[in-house]
């Protein structure tokens, strides 16, 4: 599986703000929004383009647009903090939603929302979720997408654990990963170490289900 690191001093500084336990909810959300811009910018670098003529005030020249605008899929809740920036960078994109809550005892993902187009064949899909820990939530989300015909899937994350990267690799699904960091591992609660804590809680407060 292809893994692309966004290795840039500005991305590292934003990730540091997100890791810092002293960052409050608005500070965390703002750093996530800005970092998402960098992740998406890199993730879309090799996207297919279409050439067309554009008329400047002076002459006709070569214009460029995305040949195949993607579907963005934030994984609720934490991925919600990434979707606004991603869709403003790619205004032609559409958005689908998946809701997934990890059971705190078993660490297994529990899907609670699936709002996606029926047919995803031929559509590049960008799954937005800041955390790839055990990988269970991402693999489950990708299963839903593949079931609808998706064959070109990019997982866009902020922090990944090696276990999550391995789970994506071993899934055999057509996915590549774009991330700002791969951390040391997981603790006994399956939290990423050093990580940044619970990315949903750090944006929105405690989860109620
Ligand atoms: O790789 P995994 O071990 O599956 O863990 C990662 C998942 O955990 C977090 O969501 P969480 O279940 O905490 O829900 P939330 O976004 O509502 O807080 C995170 O946003 C991922 O979806
Ligand atoms: O470290 C982790 C692991 C799962 N979910 C999170 O939000 N953080
Ligand atoms: Mg959470």
Which key features would you list for this structure?
binds magnesium ion, three-stranded parallel beta sheet, binds 1-O-pyrophosphono-5-O-phosphono-alpha-D-ribofuranose, alpha/beta, 15 strands, eight-stranded mixed beta sheet, globular, 209 residues, binds uracil, 6 helices
Give a structural overview:
This protein has 209 residues and is of the alpha/beta class. It has six helices and 15 strands. It has helices at 9-19, 25-43, 80-89, 136-147, 162-171, 199-204, and strands spanning 3-5, 49-55, 60-66, 71-76, 94-95, 97-102, 109-115, 125-128, 131-132, 153-156, 159-160, 175-179, 181-182, 185-186, 192-193. The strands form four sheets. Strands 1, 4, 5, 6, 7, 8, 10 and 12 form an eight-stranded mixed sheet that branches. It has a three-stranded parallel sheet with strand order 9-11-13. α1 packs antiparallel against α2 (25-43) and α2 (25-43) crosses α3 (80-89). Bound molecules: 1-O-pyrophosphono-5-O-phosphono-alpha-D-ribofuranose, uracil (URA) and magnesium ion (MG). Uracil (URA) binds at residues 78, 131, 133, 191-192, 195, 198-200.
> What is the helix fraction of residues, given as a range?
25-40%
The major pleated sheet works out as: 8 strands, mixed
Low-pLDDT residue intervals, each spanning 5 or more residues: none
Radius of gyration: 17 Å
Structural class: alpha/beta
Cα distance spanning the termini: 33 Å
What ligands are attached or bound here? 1-O-pyrophosphono-5-O-phosphono-alpha-D-ribofuranose, uracil, magnesium ion
Q: How big a fraction of the residues is strand?
A: 25-35%
- Order of H and E elements: EHHEEEHEEEEEHEEHEEEEH
Strand element count: 15
Count of alpha and pi helical runs: 6
Averaged pLDDT, please? 97
Shape: globular
Cofactor: Mg(2+)
Keywords: Allosteric enzyme, Glycosyltransferase, GTP-binding, Nucleotide-binding, Transferase
InterPro entries: PRTase-like, PRTase_dom, UPRT, UPRTase/APRTase
Organism: Rhodococcus kronopolitis
């Amino acid at each position: 599986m292809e893994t692309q690191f966004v290795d840039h001093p500005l991305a590292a500084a934003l990730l540091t703000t997100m890791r810092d336990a002293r960052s409050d909810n608005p500070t965390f959300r703002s750093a996530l929004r800005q970092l998402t811009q960098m992740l998406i910018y890199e993730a879309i670098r090799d996207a297919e383009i279409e050439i067309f003529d554009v008329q400047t005030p002076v002459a006709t020249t070569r214009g460029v647009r995305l040949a195949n605008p993607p579907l963005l899929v934030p994984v609720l809740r934490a991925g919600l903090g990434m979707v606004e920036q991603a869709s403003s960078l790619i205004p032609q994109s559409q958005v689908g939603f998946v809701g997934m809550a990890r059971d705190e005892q078993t660490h297994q993902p529990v899907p609670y929302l699936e709002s996606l187009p029926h047919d995803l064949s031929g559509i590049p899909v960008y799954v937005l979720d800041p955390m790839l820990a055990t990988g269970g939530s991402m693999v489950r989300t990708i299963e839903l997408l593949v079931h609808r015909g998706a064959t070109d899937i990019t997982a866009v994350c902020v922090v990944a654990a090696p276990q999550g990267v391995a789970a994506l690799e071993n899934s055999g699904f057509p996915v590549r990963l774009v991330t700002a960091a791969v951390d040391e591992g997981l603790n006994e609660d399956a939290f990423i170490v050093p990580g940044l804590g619970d990315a949903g809680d750090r944006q929105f407060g405690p989860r109620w289900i």
